[in-house]
Amino acid sequence: MTGGDDLLTAPLSVLGLIVRASNALLNNGISTVGDLLAKTEVEIATLPGIGPFALADIRAKLSARGLMFRPGGALSPPKKP
C-alpha cells in the first residue's frame, strides 16, 4: 500500500479540520479522507452544517496536503446585484 492509499483510508481527523466542519462531515456519513475526496465541492457545500467558513477550512486543509475535491463542479463566486 502506498502513502497515498494510507491517506485515503485515514480518518478525517488527520486533516485538522475545525470542529464544525468535521462534525458536519461525520454527521453526513463522510468519515475518511477518501470519502471526502470522492465528493465534488458543490456536494460538500450543500451538506447540512457546511457553511462558507467550514467549506473554506476544508478547502484549505485539502490544499495544504496537495489534495482537492473530485472534479465536476466548483462553486461560483456570488453574483453582485
Describe the structure.
The protein is an all-alpha fold and 81 residues long. It has helices spanning 3-9, 19-27, 33-37, 41-45, 52-64. The chain is globular. The mean pLDDT is 87.
Tell me what the CATH architecture of the domain at 10-64 is.
Answer: Orthogonal Bundle
Main sheet overview: none
Kindly state the percentage of residues in helix: 40-55%
Order of helices and strands: HHHHH
Number of strands: 0
**Overall CATH class of the domain at 10-64:** Mainly Alpha
Strand-residue proportion: under 5%
Helix/sheet category = mainly alpha
First-to-last CA distance: 51 Å
Low-confidence stretches: none
Count up the helices.
5
CATH topology of the domain at 10-64: DNA polymerase, domain 1
Our Rg estimate from Cα atoms comes to 13 Å
| Basic shape | globular
Q: Summarize model confidence as the mean pLDDT.
A: 87
Summary of the model, kept short:
The protein is mainly alpha-helical and 81 residues long. It has helices at 3-9, 19-27, 33-37, 41-45, 52-64.
Task: Please outline the helices and strands.
Elements lengths: L2 H7 L9 H9 L5 H5 L3 H5 L6 H13 L17
Annotation keywords:
0% strand; single chain; DNA polymerase, domain 1; 48% helix; 81 residues; mainly alpha
